[in-house]
């Protein structure tokens, strides 16, 4: 299956999941790489992330099962799962460092995606969950750098740094973003460069943005309930 087919599968899963969540009146946000795509980032090809409060996780599985998906309780305690054919739907309630609460839901924005009005996680929250998920076993910065280049002008980088820099893998990535001149992450300093210090080469600012999400059609203070 090529990337376009995987992307189309995610879209079909989204078209099933969103009406099911609305019918069950469960507040949620689209998260992960598909949320980044909704903000103008690269197209996703892996799985679909739905962000819900922990108290709503089982109700979400019931709603998705009612829409024809098969469900799963994995050993991890921070999520449950559903499958639309071969497409994985992660129902995430407690990502590292950012449990899904009413406050997180309220920071979402409604976007027009694939002929649906979809509540989407705020960009800073999406990036925080991705950075805080990094560890020595999952330390691939390539995809994160692609995302950073695509959405750099929309991100409050200093606020993101303040939220995540205590996690060393996140701090290392943010330093890389600054050194590659993708974005200004750290506050300017008046201290001179040490003798012999050079400048870092500017990163390429081009990005491929095929299969783009539609422009936002509005925002709400809370995740949408139909």
Written account of the structure:
By secondary structure, the chain is α+β, with helices and mostly antiparallel strands. The chain has one domain: 2-Layer Sandwich (Beta Polymerase, domain 2), CATH 3.30.460. It contains eight helices and seven strands; from the N terminus they run αβαβαβββαββαααα. It has helices spanning 3-23, 32-38, 57-66, 102-106, 123-132, 142-151, 157-164, 168-179, and strands spanning 29-31, 48-51, 70-72, 79-84, 87-92, 109-113, 116-120. The strands form two sheets. The protein has a five-stranded mixed beta sheet with strand order 1-2-5-4-3. It has a two-stranded antiparallel ribbon with strand order 6-7. The protein is globular and about 50 Å long. The two termini are 35 Å apart. The relative contact order is 0.17.
Characteristic terms for this protein:
Beta Polymerase, domain 2; 5-stranded mixed beta sheet; 226 residues; two-stranded antiparallel sheet; globular; disordered C terminus; alpha+beta; 7 strands
């Amino acid at each position: 299956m090529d990337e376009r087919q995987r992307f189309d599968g995610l879209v079909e899963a989204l078209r099933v999941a969103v009406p099911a969540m609305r019918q069950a009146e469960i507040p949620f946000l689209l998260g992960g790489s598909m949320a980044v795509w909704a903000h103008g980032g690269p197209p996703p090809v892996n799985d679909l992330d739905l962000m819900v409060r922990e108290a709503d996780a089982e109700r979400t599985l019931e709603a998705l099962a009612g829409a024809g998906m098969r469900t799963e309780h994995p050993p991890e305690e921070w999520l449950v799962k559903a499958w639309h054919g071969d497409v994985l739907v992660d129902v995430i309630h407690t990502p590292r460092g950012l449990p899904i609460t009413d406050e997180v839901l309220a920071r979402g924005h409604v976007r027009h995606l694939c002929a649906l009005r979809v509540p989407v996680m705020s960009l800073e929250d999406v990036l925080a969950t991705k950075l805080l998920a990094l560890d020595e076993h999952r330390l691939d910065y390539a995809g994160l750098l692609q995302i950073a280049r695509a959405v750099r002008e929309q991100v409050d980088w200093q606020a993101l740094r303040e939220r995540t820099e205590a996690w060393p893998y996140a701090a290392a990535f943010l330093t890389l973003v600054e050194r590659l001149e993708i974005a200004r992450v750290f506050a300017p300093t008046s201290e001179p460069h040490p003798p012999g210090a050079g400048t870092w080469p500017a990163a390429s600012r081009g990005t491929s943005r095929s299969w783009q999400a539609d422009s936002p059609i509005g925002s709400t203070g809370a995740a949408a309930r139909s």
